[in-house]
From TrEMBL:
Start and end residues of each Mandelate racemase/muconate lactonizing enzyme C-terminal domain: 145-244
SUPFAM superfamilies: Enolase C-terminal domain-like, Enolase N-terminal domain-like
Family: Belongs to the mandelate racemase/muconate lactonizing enzyme family.
Lineage, opening ranks: Bacteria, Bacillati, Bacillota, Bacilli, Lactobacillales
GO BP, one annotated term: peptide metabolic process
Keywords: Isomerase, Magnesium, Metal-binding
Name the record gives this protein: Dipeptide epimerase
Protein EC: 5.1.1.-
GO molecular function, one term: racemase and epimerase activity, acting on amino acids and derivatives
Record: residues binding Mg(2+): 195, 223, 248
Active site: 166, 272
Length: 352
């Protein structure tokens, strides 16, 4: 029986889906979902699929490098391994190569889906949760102020109750006014989340946050306003900002989470499977954060439904994960594989 659970094949291909419009942050521009897709097959025929979306400016790798790592490094190590040796299998992927988190994430998600399919479960059930709705925000990428405001109004009209704004590519005063103008245009019931992608310093963040607070703006948090390495500034802002501070780029793995939490350098942590290398490390980070009383958000890159569905399953299984930023599925006209995993209803991803 055990030999039927051996991994006999691991196939890799590329999945690409154009975006409705370019996605721009302080770090980069994206025009399409560019994903590496991994399909794992067991001796008994059971399969599972995972994807990753590398990004040179965020994860430090590319589509071609991630594919090469999977095919040339990870695949030879996992072929012949048995799904019954689950912890050993996950450790093999994790230790196969340093860095290269997206490549590891694609393989690990495929392994988790294979295991879920083997047991006749959804991934949500395998992780200890159940299928259902995941309410996500929608990210307004950087552009001209009038364009960003128009996009915000459009998404509110489509049913989104929370908007995430990318800031940090222009002058501070411009960003301060933009947030105020957009908040008024979107309406008093719409929540805002602000992401500077490391573009500001403490002075700029405090100046902006104090102004917005005086105006009574409904802001859930300010995400990674300062450079990822600057934990002293993150800690200062966590103590003094009128709005909660979320760590994103400061936390890529469990060790990063330990350092950030030891310094009390955030109110929330943004967990992304493309940063952590998959679900197992993400779970460790969330468990640690929960033990310290720090809630988390599950976030994403510009990803395809396979990895977004895995992130949704993670959200459904972890009560400490109270926010979701999984909006890439709404940025494409149609992911051809959407119906195999979920459906989109308003601002919700309803995952199986």
């Amino acid at each position: 029986m055990a030999e039927q659970l051996a991994i006999t094949d691991l196939q890799v291909d590329i999945k690409q889906i154009p975006l409705k419009q370019p996605f721009v942050t302080a770090l980069h521009r994206v025009d399409a979902v560019n994903a590496v897709r991994v399909t794992v097959r067991l001796a008994n025929g059971v399969t599972g699929i995972g994807t990753c979306t590398p990004n040179e400016k965020v994860t430090g790798d590319s589509l071609s490098s991630a594919r090469a790592v999977i095919e040339e490094t990870i695949k030879p190590l996992v072929l012949g391994k048995n799904l019954t040796d689950w912890k050993e299998l996950l450790n093999t992927v994790k230790t196969s190569i340093v860095h290269n988190a997206p490549a590891k994430a694609a393989v690990e998600i495929a392994l988790y889906n294979t295991r879920a399919n083997l047991f006749g479960l959804t991934l949500s059930q395998l992780l200890g949760g159940k299928g259902g709705s995941v309410e996500t925000d929608y990210t307004i990428s950087i552009g001209k102020a009038e364009q960003m405001i128009a996009n915000a109004q459009k998404m509110v009209d489509q049913g989104f109750k929370t908007l995430k704004l990318k800031l940090g590519a222009g002058h501070l005063k411009r960003d301060i006014k933009l947030v105020e103008d957009l908040a008024y245009a979107a309406g008093p019931m719409v929540h805002l989340r602000l992401d500077m992608n490391q573009a500001w310093d403490v002075r700029q963040t405090m100046q902006a946050a104090e102004y917005w607070h005086k105006q009574g703006l409904l802001i859930d948090f300010i995400e990674q306003p300062v450079p990822a390495w600057d934990l002293d500034s993150m800690a200062y802002l966590t103590r003094h900002s009128p709005y909660p501070i979320m760590a994103d780029e400061s936390v890529e793995n469990y060790e990063d989470a330990q350092r950030v939490l030891a310094k009390n350098a955030c109110d929330y942590i943004n967990i992304k499977l493309m940063k952590t290398g998959g679900l197992s490390e993400a779970q460790k980070i969330n468990d640690l954060a929960e033990s310290r009383g720090v809630p988390t958000m599950v976030g994403s890159m510009i990803e395809s439904i396979e990895s977004l569905a895995a992130a949704c399953a993670f959200y459904r299984a972890n009560p400490n994960t109270i926010f979701a930023d999984l909006d890439a599925i709404f940025m494409v006209d149609q992911d051809p594989d959407l119906n195999s995993y979920a459906e989109c209803v308003g601002d919700n991803i309803v995952v199986r």
